[in-house]
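@here heads up, posting the sequence + SMILES for the cytidine-5'-triphosphate run so it's all in one place. Ping me if the SMILES looks off, I pulled it from an old spreadsheet.
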Amino acid sequence: MNRSRYWLVVPAAGIGQRMQADCPKQYLRLDGRYILDITLSRLLQHPCFSGCMVALHPEDSWWPGTLASTNPRIHTCTGGRERADSVLAALAALATRAAPDDWVLVHDVARPCLHPGDLDRLITRLSGHAVGGLLAAPVTDTLKRTRPGSLEVEATVDRSSLWRALTPQMFRYQILAEALVKALDAGVAVTDEASAVEHAGLIPELVEGRSDNLKITLPADLALAGFILGQIGGGPSVPNSENQ
Ligand SMILES: Nc1ccn([C@@H]2O[C@H](COP(=O)(O)OP(=O)(O)OP(=O)(O)O)[C@@H](O)[C@H]2O)c(=O)n1
Ligand SMILES: C[C@](O)(CO)[C@H](O)COP(=O)(O)O
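bot reply: prediction finished. Complex structure tokens:
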């Protein structure tokens, strides 16, 4: 019987530099709701989570105005300089509650369009796995490689085994915490959890996810996310009951 519990970690300490808005992008609104509230409420609709840790920027002044801040299931910690530092801070904040073999699902606050079917499939597929893995979407465009620092095409790249890494990324607590520390100590660029786990010599598994699990990054992404949410359903507010 699988006795591992499931914890949710949401890195939300970014400043959204590429969005060029007058607030961090997670505090922009879609249909009147903060992106952060939409993302958290979609995740917490799943009944598996024992708790949720959100990493916030040390100078975040928007959080107290969110719906999520009133939810007793959601806890916060101070994030770090890079995304990986924020994830590690959230894992440290969960250290007294999470067991080594428990699962941690890490999901970008900037991905509000996660489909509940994808979340459910990720959890179901990986629950018996020793390490964990991530949602990913196959690359569908023809890919070009340029010469470094130029726009001259050097080659067309074979895309048949290339995937776009999405979130959630789901790993055993101890494996992930140790892998992140090791990778950061080694100065490895850790843009997602899987890259740290790979650096530790372990093999994450991909679970195919929907390509519309968009990470809001540039100004044009905002309208697109609004459209996608309209298609897949915005979802109700964050449920308030704790699942222990
Ligand atoms: N120091 C950081 C940097 C990023 N993030 C989070 O990591 C996720 C993915 O990062 P990205 O899309 O790059 O967000 P930003 O860093 O906010 O954007 P930008 O790079 O344009 O500044 C986001 O949920 C972001 O809030 C974080 O928690 N801590
Ligand atoms: C974790 C991630 O969302 C996977 O696609 C991504 O790596 C976040 O960071 P990025 O700097 O925006 O690539």
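MO: Residues 219-232 form the longest helix (14 residues).
MO: One more: Residues 236-244 have pLDDT under 50 and may be disordered.
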